Records
---
Amino acid sequence: MWLQMSKLETIRTFFNQSLKSIEQTALDPEISAQLLQASELIKAAYLSGGCLFAAGNGGSAADVQHLVAELVARLCRERDSIRAFSMTVDPSIMTAIGNDYGYDEVFARQVNGLMTPKDVFLGISTSGNSPNILKALEACSKRGIVSILLTGESGGLARSLATHSIRVPARDTRLIQESHAMIYHTLCQLIETDLIEAGFCTYR
């Protein structure tokens, strides 16, 4: 019985931490402003003939794939597919670059080979210090590619390298990732709505 109560207390504690963190993110006016700006940058890229490329590691790699899936498939509305790419899904590219140049270069090499200045790069790093995200942001800067960083409270070294950043007011990786999911779902909805209203894709 004591063990069961201890587990229930763990559940309550974790749920309460998550609720407080997500509420703090949701009520932060700076994050809302950052999201609007990010959506405008992405909208401009699509309307100029570009698209979104995204990258992250571990749980953030899963988030990147989730984000891209919502755009290519759909989020809330029946509409044309929106072209977007995850840089984490091709094992041949990832292992070739990792083997030949080192894991720090797995995204930068793709930026250089696949992206143009019409595109937007979205990097997700809870710490803001992931070496391969830093390298990718540097590559974007050199090529004149707009970059967006989705990160935690400090933003790490990546904060100064990205064109634009969205920083969650949390330091715990788990809490950051939970708020990230809310943010990229909201970002997807903004992109979806913007591109339908702009006539870029057809609402069905």
---
Amino acid sequence: MNPELFLQLDRVIHEKGRLAIMAALAASPELSFTELRDTLGMTDGNLTSHIRTLQEEGFVSVAKSFQNNRPLTSCSLTKTGRKAFGEYIALLEQIVRQNKP
């Protein structure tokens, strides 16, 4: 087993909540805050915190608008975020392949 591969995992993405957000956004072009919250079973505060971290890293884009006179917050992966997530998944696959008997 090569421990170097584990050290290469992106710590921003690797955290359980952020990994779930990245995976959900990778599967959809855009999701509302409410859709993310309900799909992932997170609290508003927890989701907000993780989205902020991903946004600061440049992985997630947040857009605020109105729908039926109500505020709507939508999230999507940026080009950088999609690339980082793809590299993260590729590294996980490499780790799994390396450790198969």
